[in-house]
Amino acid sequence: MGKQTVDESSREPRLSSRLATHRWSFRTRPLATVLPYLGPAFVASVAYIDPGNYATNIESGAQFGYTLLWVIFAANLAAMLIQSLSAKLGIATGHNLAEICRERFPRPLAWGMWVVAELVAMATDLAEFLGAALGFALLFHFPLFVGGLLTGIATFAILALERYGHRPIEAIITSLVGVIAACYVLETILEEPDWGAIATHAVIPRFAGSESVLLATGILGATVMPHVIYLHSALTQHRIVPRTAEDARRIFRFEVLDVVIAMGIAGLVNAAMLVMAAATFHARGLSHIGTIEEAHRTLEPLLGPLASIAFALSLLASGLSSSTVGTMAGQVVMQGFLHRTIPIWLRRGITMLPALVVIALGLDPTRTLVISQVVLSFGIPFALIPLILFTADRRLMGDLVNRPFTTALASLLAALIIGLNILLLWTTFTGGAS
Fold first, then answer.
1. Which terminal residue of the chain has fewer beta carbons within 10 Å of its beta carbon, N or C?
2. 96-121 per-position pLDDT tens digit
3. Would you say 316 and 142 are in contact if contact means Cβ atoms under 8 Å apart?
4. For the chain, first and last CA: distance in Å?
5. pTM across the whole model
6. Domains of the chain, with CATH numbers?
């Protein structure tokens, strides 16, 4: 498939004056030069600090202290590689992953992939919406159903900014990521963790029995979020138009920087979640803490009201941002596979219904989060394998084609992640974890 002819006026910003002067401007105004390229990875990074991560990280820290901290950093490195490939696909081809799947695969397979992608997006959105609703409930002591309604209103308001272009949405998402990070900086200050143990367990792989292996599998197996693989390629495909091979390489270098910064922040936030649980719960013998509600309820008597407020606020910011991103990803998936879209407010309304039903039925939010992650794991091969195949195709990617080592590393990573998710599914449905 060759590059698609596009209307240059529909893409922003233009390259004529921007890329031609980068070498000079980067030396004199490095921040001003980099800023236009930052944003897509921050939107994608939200999926790595969504409410589904809270339960896993809290349970890992409460049960095993700092032991599994290295898993979070290893998983974060994997996320950086995969999101870099997704960004590169959009830059090199001018298409997103869903569009290329439609063009390159048989139509029945493409339709089947669309169905899987939609189910995964809905399952992911269920977890994210529930997380935001729970954040409202914990922070303001509202009933959970009222929190759900407020979540719907808030995400409608954020998504309405899309009519003004990508920058307002990126600014809101980045600000919410900043809120999450700030809350966990505060948590870290309040809890006074063991920095020596953190330094040791961040780099030395270690387990503490079969249950810790299972939790590590959960952390690694949930590394790849299929919906943001599709979304990240869409966020870069029309952002800045490369006119030469050198332009494309330069744009990609800046996007890699975007990925490293955004995913680095996400990794540190995930690590801070585990550190909080280790320093607060495990250190006091409270290894039974396993749900988000228990963690919030226990923080106040241990660290004071400020700690519990920061925890609830970070959960709210995580849920709102990730729910917004999930809705955006759903639009990309439908447009790419079917060349059709529905109004974004209608998609938001449809995808919030399952969460409101779960809340109305009084089902356990944390358990629902876990089940949604199981559904999500089904969709990983359908996004990850095509991504690796396409980015390794020189006819499609041109000078941005993967190096053989990159393809081999990504393939090994894909096999590991898919294998871990199969293990998670097996233990979930057979009780292998007990």
1. C
2. 999 999 999 999 999 999 998 888 87
3. no
4. 49
5. 0.84
6. 37-383+412-430 (1.10.4160.10)
